[in-house]
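Field log, afternoon session.

UNIT: design team B
ACTIVITY: writing a sequence onto a fixed backbone
BACKBONE:
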């Protein structure tokens, strides 16, 4: 049923029913709740070409690595005690999204500045909401599962060491050479979908799917959690690791690769006796009890502090550039 709605009848089910609260409080719906009109297509095109295109994402890699290093430094500074993974992951995700989305000033149309400002603000809120909690929560779930299964964590770390070594941090291009790491990401998203239900879809016209007659304007809810929890969809089948099968549809896009890979490359993590997998449903489905990390460094310290503009003080003296590293060991 879900496959037919999302693939075969996707044009008919591309419409949204705007919640009453949003109609009352805000004139401009978010991209997730917008109708597939020309304005929606224009915003989607901007997202695809200016933020999420492969060339754009690659150009953001130094920024992402800088924020990842900052997160690693924060964890390393507290390695003798337990630190909250959620706050550090959320801070890193927020900083990355902020720089990607707000790195340049918005160009307003003076003839309709108020309307454009509101619609731009709504789009920016979409980016922050969709890119911070979802990414940080997925990484937190992955860390929790790997800490509970140390042999699996060791296997991922061995793969990272084999592909990257310990002379530099993981980069995005390395991920394609780490199939087991990719499988861990997908398994995490299968077991713990951050958003258990997709945004409700509305049928524009009456249609028939399988043995069901669906009237016009009917709302459909796709239960991603149920799809992922059905072992018959995953066991005994030959899957493409790149996620082209319908059963792997929720795993098509992820922004967590560098954060998780660098964390596993940089640290070993001890199990917290209070660690459980109780879920708490809210804007996203996260761990009810935030994950506490007890980390020990497994890579040279210079990889964590290297080339950090926020941690380096430059002093120029004609023929020499002195680089003074400010770091608390």
């Amino acid at each position: 049923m879900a496959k037919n709605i999302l693939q075969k009848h996707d044009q008919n089910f591309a419409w949204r029913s705007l919640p009453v609260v949003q109609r009352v409080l805000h004139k401009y719906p978010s991209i997730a709740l917008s109708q597939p009109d020309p304005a929606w297509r224009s915003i989607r095109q901007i997202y695809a070409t200016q933020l999420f295109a492969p060339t754009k994402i690659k150009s953001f890699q130094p920024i992402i690595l800088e924020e990842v290093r900052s997160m690693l430094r924060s964890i390393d500074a507290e390695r003798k005690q337990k630190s909250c993974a959620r706050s550090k992951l959320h801070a890193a995700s927020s900083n990355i999204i902020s720089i990607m989305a707000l790195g340049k000033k918005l160009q307003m149309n003076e003839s309709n500045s108020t309307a454009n400002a509101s619609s731009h603000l709504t789009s920016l809120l979409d980016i922050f909401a969709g890119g911070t909690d979802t990414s940080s929560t997925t990484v937190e779930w992955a860390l929790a599962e790997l800490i509970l299964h140390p042999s699996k964590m060791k296997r991922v770390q061995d793969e990272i060491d084999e592909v990257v070594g310990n002379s530099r941090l993981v980069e995005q291009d390395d991920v394609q050479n780490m199939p087991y790491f990719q499988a861990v990401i997908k398994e995490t998203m299968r077991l713990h979908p951050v958003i258990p239900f997709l945004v409700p879809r509305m049928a524009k016209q009456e249609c028939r799917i399988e043995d069901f007659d669906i009237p016009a304007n009917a709302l459909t809810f796709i239960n991603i959690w149920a799809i992922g929890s059905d072992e018959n969809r995953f066991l005994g089948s030959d899957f493409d690791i790149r996620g082209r099968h319908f059963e792997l549809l929720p795993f098509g896009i992820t922004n967590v690769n560098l954060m998780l890979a660098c964390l596993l490359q940089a640290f070993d993590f001890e199990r917290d006796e209070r660690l459980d997998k109780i879920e708490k449903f809210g804007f996203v489905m996260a761990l009810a009890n935030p994950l506490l990390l007890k980390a020990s460094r497994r890579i040279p310290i210079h990889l964590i502090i290297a080339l950090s503009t926020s941690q380096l003080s430059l002093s120029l003296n004609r023929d020499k550039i002195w680089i003074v590293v400010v770091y608390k060991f």
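LOG NOTE: The chain has one domain: 2-304.
NEXT ACTIVITY: expression trials, pending approval
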